Hints:
The protein is built from 7 helices and no strands. By secondary structure, the protein is mainly α. It has a domain at 43-80 and 94-176 and 193-230: Growth Hormone, Chain: A.
Amino acid sequence: MHMMTVKQWGVWAVLLWPCLLTMSIPLDCKEEQGSLSRCLSISQEKLLDRVIQHAELIYRVSEESCSMFEEMFVPFPLRLQRNQAGYACITKALPIPSSKSEIQQISDKWLLHSVLMLVQSWIEPLVYLQTTLDRYDDAPDMLLNKTKWVSEKLISLEQGVVVLIKKMLDEGTLTTTNSEQGIFQYDVQPEMLESVMRDYTLLSCFKKDAHKMETFLKLLKCRQTDKYNCA
C-alpha cells in the first residue's frame, strides 16, 4: 500500500485548504450579547442551506484529517482494531437512528434533535483532541489546523441547528450531558500507542457521526421540497 509522505500531504493540503475556506459561508449566529439574532433574521430555507453546507465541509475535513492521521501514525495491522471492544464510539449509547428504515421513519423534529445531540456530544472531545495532537512530535500543522477549524465550525453548526429548531419547531433547545459519559481521562497520560489508538478512534468516530449529521440535514431539506420521494 502506498504511504503518503508528510511532504506530499503538505503539498496536497495547501492546495485544497484555501478552497474550503473560500467556499464556506459564515454561520456565526451569536451577537456580542450572546443572542442568536443574526440567524433568526435569515429565512428558514437559506439557514437550512447554510447549515447543510457547514455539515458537508465538516464531514469532508474530518475525512481528510482521519486519513492523514491514519497514514502518518497508525501501523496497518492496528487499523482494524478501532472496531474492537475497548474502542467504542462515545456516541454509541445515544438514541440516534442508524438503519435506513429507522431514519426514514423518524420525524423532522427527531432529525433535528439527533443532529443537535451529535453536535453537542462532540464539542468537548474535539477540544481534547486538539490538546493531545499538540503532543505529537511529528504532527503537521495542517492536521492541527484542520482539527481546530472543525472544532470551531462545530460550534457554529450547533448555533445554526438551535435556530432551525426554533424556526421549524417553535420550541426551545435540547440540552444534553452526553459528553460527561466520555471515555477520557484528562489527568492520565496514556502510553504512546494507546494514545494513538484513542485519537484514531476519536477521529474515525467523529467522521462517521459527521456523515450522519450531513445525511440527516439533507433528508430534512428533501422533505421540505419533495416529501414523498426522499430516499
